[in-house]
Amino acid sequence: MPGYGRQYFGTWLAVISAALIYFSVVFACAFLMGIFRVLVANPALGKTTAVLIELPLVLAISWISAGILIARFGICQNLTQRLAMGGLALIVTVAAELGFSVFVFGQSLSAYVETIWNPAGVLGLSGQAGFALIPAMRLAFERMRQS
What we know:
Layout: H1 3-45, H2 47-73, H3 79-104, H4 109-116, H5 119-146
Helix pairs in contact: 1-2, 1-3, 2-5, 3-5
């Protein structure tokens, strides 16, 4: 691959790598917090309150992880790359969540979908949207700090 093509390929490989590590870090942390939420917080506080407590922690981990990975992989100040990083991480997150629900926990696909359509599920979906947008939001934050 001559010049520009190699640089272009390397840039997108960095975006993909950052997205996959972003997913891995946040998913692992959220999975561990989810165990605590299901076993301890849900029975004591209810599902919605438990998710309201967990959500800001997961988003904080997402914010910090995205910042570290953007710097580490040199993801430039390009909205397309930041949205791609978050979007790919979201796609992998949804696939992993669905895979765990169906293949590990034995839930049917319809039962999985039903868990989304309640207040706790909608909060979780909102958190996933925030997770996907955080790399782009960091770009806006970086631009505000520079001006």
